[in-house]
Please model this.
Amino acid sequence: MEMATKAVDSTVHLCYKESLIDLAHIRPASKCREEGCAGLVNLKDKSVGSALYFDWVCEKGHNNGTWCSQPVFRRGLHAGDLLTSAAILFSGNNYQKVQLMTKFMKLPIVSQASFLKIQRSYLVPAIEEKWKEHLAHRIQTIKDSSGEVVISGDGRMDSPGHCAQYCTYTAMENSTKEILSVVTVDKRETGKSSVWMEKEGFLRTLQFFLDEHILVKEVITDAHPSITAVLRNEHPSITHSYDIWHAAKNLAKKIMKASQKKQCGLLRQWCSHIVNHFYHISGESSSVEEFTDLWFGVLHHVVDEHEWAVGRGRCSHGPLSGEHIEWMKKGSPAHDALRVIIADRRFLKNIPYFLNARSTADLEGFNSLITMYAGKRFAYRPPVYRARNLLAALDHNEHLNRESMTNKDGNVRMAKTFNKKSNRWSVRELKVQKKYGHIDGLLKKVFCIRAADKVGMSMPVVLQESDPRRISSTIAPVLPPPKDVLIQEHKSRLSK
Ligand SMILES: [Zn+2]
Ligand SMILES: [Zn+2]
Model:
């Protein structure tokens, strides 16, 4: 334990071997301490994993002392190997890339085989344990207050379309923006179909809250049809809201497409105003009727008609002054095209989902954080993939309340940002750099798990009960034929 603390708290330096040899030679060459030998003692060095060893050996081979550049745990595991492995995973890196970098530096590191063993035996369990503790704390806080949550949920595929092996379904608490649940679904768990992964992830997410006895009051998602159906049919008491940014982007797309029709060019100028109107009334309306009323009001407003006979019967803006967009002519092709969009039945049917003016934009941000920890171009085993997603969640929750960066004059620094879903530019506050305060705790956990390990890390792997590799060894729709059969096929193809 003490050694673990020492190994975590100590700094690590890049040392050239020549410099260390110089250091070792500060002590003048001595005579062998073996009785009756008195041979000259020489310095010998050897590299083991990331560690450097010096042996003081006399001409006749008597050992006069050994020095290692790192703390060594029981059964010869070097702290540096454990630390490097942990640092590679915890920083979202990839073994091969780091190994290539250190190869160029001529810096020996832990071997890939040892890295994989360390990852499996100590790193993944440490992350799981840390997440469990973190979550237990969050859950208790919620139970101590209202016991209910509004969550936004979204599924992220590890690669596009049918190639996806994993879907990560994340639930974020809407007011605190804390990640409360991370579910990773493997394609093998949904009959090797990527289409069902998001729904499966969502169902498990709901089950998680049910098991924790936390009431889910409202769920905010994209307009995902199968999730909409689940909530409507099986959980009618949960309010379901759609991300209005996404809806606004679709609306803008429809208007821009219509503006390409003959004599409809004017729609292009009106587009952003209509989209803003949509945002505005999503937040203002408290009922479907009110929303519908204000929504259809657009058709009056664009033809310079600000009072009319039915419903609410007038625009909510004050007197119009200064420049405005060219009014449309009532019944013109542009006005008719807009009427088709405004009165679109699919859109009108979705109005109940817009009334709370909710957004999943913060969850989008979290999804890009997952990409930092689990790059889309790499393949991971299920427990490692899950652990990498949990690392993203721990990182996110750790840094939720970061302070804003300020200029010399005390103003908050802002940066331009583009949201792909809504196709809109906006600004966001720049935050101070992340401190990653949770990583030391995680490292200590790794060292403690290792210290408590009685069997070592070279035991054969036993897959956990829930491991998708128990269902099938690959995600391909058919199992692979034996390799020698494939080699024969390859050869006969070449000879043709
Ligand atoms: Zn000797
Ligand atoms: Zn008006």
Observations:
- Strands lie at 41-48, 51-58, 63-68, 148-157, 166-173, 179-186, 215-221, 239-242, 414-419, 424-429.
